[in-house]
Every structure is written in C-alpha cells, then in structure tokens.
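sorry for the late reply, my laptop died twice this morning and i had to redo everyting from scratch. anyway the thing you sent over, i finally got around to it. pasting the sequence first so we're on the same page, its 178 residues, then the predicted structure underneath. double check i copied it right bc i was rushing
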Amino acid sequence: MLYFALIRSGYRIIIKSFNHEEDKNMVECERLIAGVIGVAFNEKGEVLLSQRHEPNVPNEHAKWQLPGGSLEFGEHPEDTLRREIQEELKTKAIIISPGPIIKSQTFKEKKPGDDDLTSYHLLMLAYIISLDSDIDISGDPEASSSAWVPVDKIATLDTLPLVQGIVNEARERLKTNR
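ok and here's the structure:
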C-alpha cells in the first residue's frame, strides 16, 4: 500500500510518500514548490534580475533570479506577484500580458547533514510586468544586488533554473503581441 503525508513547511507544501508503514521515516521526500515571478523589461530591452543572498543554501546563493517568491496557501498567483514585488522591490507590479508563462522542472537533492534524498517539483508562473516606479532592494534580506541585464548576457550569468527560458519566452510573447 502507498501512504502519503502532507506537511506544510513555510510556504511550501511537502508531500511525503512511502510504501510501508514502517518505511515512513526512511523515505525519499517529494516537495512541490510553486513560485510566482515577474519578468520586467526596461526601455532598452534589458531584464531585471536580482542576485540571491542565501548563504545557508549554497546551490542558490549568489545566483541571479527573477523577482518573485512562493505562492502562499489560498493566495491567487497575481496577488502573490504583487505582494512579492512590493516586498522585494518596494514598487508595484503592473501585469502587461494576460496569462502567465508556466514552466516546470523536477530535480533531486540532498540537504547538508540530511541522509534523505529529496525530489523537488518546481512549478513557476511568470508574469510579464512593468514596474510603477524605481526599485529599492535595500530592505530585501534575500537579495544582495539587482541589475538590468541585456537578454543576450543572461547566459553568461550563474542563474537559478528556468530563468533563461522564461526570459526568452517573455520576449517572444512581447514581440508577437505588438
């Protein structure tokens, strides 16, 4: 028989699965991470990226990312986007293209000091946005810097997964909607 346990960890819903009652403490964990991000371009066609500051998470620390964050339980993705942009950039996000870009990726990882292998399913909803005003990341403890980056330079940066593909798709959508 297959057993499941649902656990809420921060903003993430964790699904643990195991085959036998006695195996529930020695399992491969499965985690679904739902993120909502904004893709903002300036008048030069550059995209806004921030550099992640997570020293306790080496595989994410100092990597470049699109602004946004985790979907909270019961929250609409557009509300998540607006909340995260306000928290991270101190400005308002204006959605300029209907419907999000949806990307999905799975990967496995062992956390330092943990023997369990964890499987992740990352689901990203990316909205093309404009920003209401200048940005200010000084109050965001999860970002060390931000920059408007030419799209053709993103490949030279150390980015979180899916960034390049999302930016490329956003740029294509904007071209076809004009």
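The two ends are 54 Å apart (CA to CA).
thats about all i looked at so far, will dig more tmrw
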